[in-house]
What we know:
The chain is mainly α. The protein has eight helices and no strands.
Amino acid sequence: MTQRHGVRGSAWLMVLLTGIAGWVDAVAYVRSGEVFVANQTGNAVFLAVQVAERRLPGVSRIHVAVGGDTYGPLASLIGFCLGVALAVIPLRRARRAGADDGAPPWHLLAMEAALLGTVVLLAGTPREIRLGLAAAAMGVQSVYAARVAMRGVTTTTLTGTLVALISTFAEDPGRRARKAIFLLSAVWAAYTLGAWGGAAAGLRWSIGTVHGVAALVAVAAAVAVWREQRTSDPPPMLRP
């Protein structure tokens, strides 16, 4: 039987990770065109509009207000899916080996940081490669968030957060719900502020620098989770 170990700062760590998602989404949008690396719903819309504009007769003359790029959103979508698959593999192996204690997997955050760091190293490569790597990092982050399983907090989209926020307030507007409402509001604010910062930085700094900042924050998050788990693990039993 496995035990689930929490991390005392999990709630605010999820807020921080949501800020990273807002940051890299905004950087991708302002530097690589109409594309996201965390919000894959937006990429699905961009791709669908492109298909409609190109395939439906008479639609191309309307000039839909979406760029003609399909490679960027497609590269991001593929990268995100690969990131999810990459993150799930070690979790599945640990579960089969009976080594899964249910603890938040800090190594996923380290993997995310490595992927973002790779964007720094490959800053001069075609944008589709950079978008795919950044999206893969967000896919890994999404798996981490799913493992933590905090209601309304996926860290890469805000739709679920908005639903949880409004429904929590409507169901229980009293004092008991204030903590959850405050946290969900903080998640929303983190993505928004992260996006603002990412847009501002993306317009002024290099691709390598902006992704380097995100990578450093992910490293800090991984270290925080690792240290928390290390200090909270019970000491091994002494043999007589």
